[in-house]
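Example (one chain per record):
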Amino acid sequence: MKRWFVRLGWLALLAAAVFWGWGYFFPNPEHVIRKELVQLAQVASIAPNEAPLTKLSKTQKLLGFFADDAQISLDVPGRSIRTFRGHEDLQQMALGARSMLNSLKVNFVDVAVTVAPDKLSAVADLTATASLPGEKIPEVQELEFHFKKMDRDWLIQRVDFVKTLR
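Predicted structure:
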């Protein structure tokens, strides 16, 4: 009887290892996209008194989240709707923001991810908040991120702002 319990224990351990391995090597696309959005918010945030090399490094990391032909449309408060196309525009925008701002805290909340049936594209609807230095109320923007799976990576193909009632 004791041998049966030992065998059953080994079988349970093997099943747990297979279950973990499957999740590790074939992750759920929704979880991958949510994790990418958390990392994107961290990279887009600007720490107080960030060193120039850190600014450049974070800008390069930021570009890694986007496809080469990505298009980003944002409704900048007090200004017009701004559209950035490709890595060069995005890099200029990121470097400009990092040079103008002392600090910035970006968060993505209320994230809803919808993966296409073919599992090659996805849309993430979310609310982006940006806390600027010296302002008590953060800027809030509803955004729609369109992801495209390229090789094993989920890259942002397009970001659109969502018009809301204000």
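Caption: The chain has one domain: 28-161.
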